[in-house]
Amino acid sequence: MPSRVAARFAPVLLLFAPLLAILAARLATHSQIAASHPRTAALLFLWIAADALALALIAKAPRNRPGLRALLGAIAAGCIVATLAAAQPVREALLSMPAVVTAMALTVGAYQGWSLWLAALAFRRTRSFEAAAAEVLPAPLVRFAAHESAMMRLALFSWGASPQVPEGATAFAYHRVINPMIAAFLILQLIEIVVVDLLVSHWSERAAWVLLALGIWGALFLIALMKAFRLYPVLLDDRNLRVRAGSVIDMSVPLDAIAAIEPSVTHHEAKGREVLNAAILSHPNVILRLGRPLEYRPIFGKPRLVERVAFRLDQPAPLLEALESRI
Description:
12 helices, elongated, transmembrane helix, transmembrane
């Protein structure tokens, strides 16, 4: 039991332990002792920042063996943190040591040069800016930025666009059930933006601007979600059934992997990890049992194996008839 608890909370500890160590060291640079001995405090803070990030990386790496570039990146990040986060006297003392500044600059420059070289190779190989950026920045952060950028473009543009249906595929809509509910959330969001801005502006104008920006982002996200539900329908061709829920869920299911069509699924079963439930804000009316587990890779999170696929269509009968004739 203790080993299970430790394994469960290990990722959280590996995330917060170095942050807490760096935060404690940063607070120490504001102490009277640090002000009396700024050079010593600067070197200690630099060592703690680089060491904490490097040790966390080693602990998280498979077999505790991170790549050389990743380790170099952790040390470079420690150099940047120590320079920016230290108290003013400690920072000035750090920057007054030419040998230390040169070593930090060479470390950061080596990591940036190595990463940019790999990014150029990735772009030449894939012609994808996302793949190139993933060589420089953490891949989850790049995926998040790419997804949010795509959602904002979808919200602001693509008005009146037709659903994306490749040649040879048949589309099945599901947006008529979901979009009215999303529209209700959008109206509430717009009301909330106005009310919050009026209330918070009397207390803090800066906070009001921040909340206004977040509210506008949320409204644009809901608009993009509504448009994605219409533009990205479920698709069926000769080999695959592509199950989609806007830009949130996208999984291609080979027809030869579908074992049967099930009549229903309980709410408890639909929440299981072995079930891919693509029915957003509704209960699925199409449930497929797979003959073999298939891997589902979400936009965020770890891949998992699914044994059933559930989703909701506006008119499920045509798809069910087409599937029954092919499986």
